[in-house]
Each structure stands twice: as C-alpha cells, then as structure tokens.
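INFO  loader      accepted 1 record
INFO  loader      residues=418
INFO  predictor   begin
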Amino acid sequence: MKKLNSFDFRNNQYYGFDTDKHMHFKQDLGELISDEQWNREVNKYIENMLIKEPYRLGIPELDDITTKMWSNILTIGRLFLKKIINTAPIIINFHQDGDGLSGAMSIYTSLKSMFSSYPIDNLITWLPHKGVNLEQSDIELGSSIASNVSSIEKPLFVIIDFGTTKESNNVINNALEKFDIIWIDHHKIDEFNIPNNYYINPLLFGGKSDYTAGALANVVMHAFSHVDNKELAYISLIADSSIYAPKDKNLLFESQIYDLIAIYPKIVGSSFVTPKIISNLDEYEKKEIYAYSNKRYEELEERAFKIIKKIESNKANLFILDFEKIKDNDPYPPSGKFASYIFWKLESISKKPIILILLTKKFSSVRVSKTIEDIANNIIKNIKEKGILIGGHNLAFSVDNSDEKKKEEIISVIKSAI
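INFO  predictor   done
INFO  writer      dumping tokens
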C-alpha cells in the first residue's frame, strides 16, 4: 500500500489515501511528496477509478445516448474526482423540482458510499434554484461560500437541470473566472453558448430532453463512484414526466416525495431543500407526505373535471383548463405539475391523442401525446415565430400568456395544428 499526502490549508492537517482502495481521509504526518509527484499519482488514481464501459439504465434508447456521451462523461468524472481528492469547495446548484433534486441526491449518495469519511458537509454546499436562468446572484453567492474554504484547487460549481438559456450567456464568462463548472442539463439549447467541455446535454448527442438531467447526473456519478443506484435515475424520469418513465408504484411513491419536498420544503419544516433532508426521512414520514400529495391532486382533479373544456378534432382532442378557477391558497401542487397529472388522467380515457392547455395568469402549460410529436414540434415553431416566449421540452412546455392577446394566439395556433 502506497501512502500519499495532501495538505489541507483549512486546518494544517494532512490527509492521505490508499491507491489500491477507495480514498479515505485521515490525519497523517507521513512522508511529504512533491506537487508534481502528487499530481501524477492523483491522475493515475483517477484513471484507475473511471469505468471505461458505459453505464446502462436498462432503457435501450437512453443507453444508446449514454454510449455516445461516455467519453464526455469520463471527462466530467476526471474533473469532479480531482476536486474531491484535493478537497476543493463544491457548490451544487440544482433545479428545485423532483428532477433536479434526484440529480443532487445521486451526487450525495454516491459520495457518501464512495468515501465514507469525505467531509461532505464541510466542502459541499447545496443550493436549490427556482428559475430557469443562471443568474449573477448565483455566482456571487457561490463565490462567497467558496471563499470560506482555503484550497489549492479552484472551486467547482455544478449546475443541474437549468440554465441552458440565452439569458444565462451574460453571466457565464464571469462564472468561469471564479469557478470550474460542470453543467448537466437536458433543455433545448437554441441561442445558449456552451461554456466548456464540462457541459453535457443529451440533445448534443441525438437524444431527447426526455433523458432527464437527474438521470444524467446519476450516470455521471456512476462513471467514477461505481455506485449503482438506478432508482434515483428512474425517480428523475417520473418526476419530469419523461416518456421513458417506468410505471412502478414504489418509484412513483418516491418520486412524489421528491417532487413535493423540492417544491414545498416547509412540509418537513425547512426553508429550503437539500439531499440530507431526503436521506433523513423515515418510512412513516414518507407515507404522510405521500398521502398529503395524493389528497391535494385528487382535490384539484375533482374541480378540474367540472370545468375543463374539450374541443374534438380529427388529429387530436384539445382540452383547455383554467388553473386559476380551481386552485386555492395551498401552494401544492404547482400548475406545471398538475398539468402533467391531469394530462395523464385525460390521456388514459381518451381514444385519440390529446393536447392539454392549462392556463394561469402568467403562462400556459402545454402537454402533448407522444404519438403526435410532429404536431408538437410545429406548434412550438409557430409560437416562436410569433415572438412569444416558450420553454421546456417537446411534449411538455410552457408559453408566456401574460396578456389576453397572447393567450388567444396560443390557443389559435394549437387549434390550427390539429
């Protein structure tokens, strides 16, 4: 066993690891080695840890895309592992929904399993993010947190499930000055400027946005942690209404818990959500949360079926629901999540493909059956041509309808498409 030592500037201690086994941290005042030798041995260790064969989730379409991405995934794994070994401060900025949270959870559980005494609570900060753009305030907050930790490594900023927008371009250069960035997303790229080799998105490899960011984060972590935790990838697929989501009651149970806590962390007495909160839940607490979630969906479903409008057409049936008329003071479920829920209900009883428009004061949530994806693509194209802001995925997207004119135009475009 060859012992190496890495200096921790925070408390003047040495940490060592064993090149034959997984790394472990412990105080060690053994033989000092040069930076050159240290880096050489660290790189050797990293290459030995990386899994050369692509990880498989057991979903053929996703596994094919994973194979195409694998070289890029290993590049990300090298950087991530280097930061961990050299105890760099790491900021995990994840989208505050079930998809983003499951991605963050994959990082948390992988590191906990891989490095039993890695000081995860001292070096990693979890920041849930509500919006879709990377903001200057995100970088400033991350920089402030990272400045509290002395390290020979540049801090690492990890983004999961948001930020692939042209509005994010303005802050990317500033972010790269302060951090090395790993960016895991699955949203449409359009006018977004890809910042570096550590940005990964299935859409760049011929995949769809239904390969969710949380599932991709799970695959990235397996590439160097060797932790097999496919359930978190499946939870991500379910939470984000992916066409690849498995129909499993236990996974649906877990997914609803992730989704609710991510969106409404006050239910567990917290002002914001972190993976540690999820990991500390017992089975009784999970069942209570699940029961509350089901109750809320069923209450809104009952109101929805009383007022929903149906327009029949040759190619598909169109349903229009005004969310403002059924919601109450309870913040859960949010409109987008309820749109997916009621869409599944409607699709299960419809003989034709369907399109759902769920209206709120600020935007419309649109859901489209998989069998008419070509119609969905035309709808998105025509809405963009009218200069109306639109975002999301091919079969599940949101459209700005902040005034009556936009709302009428959106409905008109969709009616014309079917």
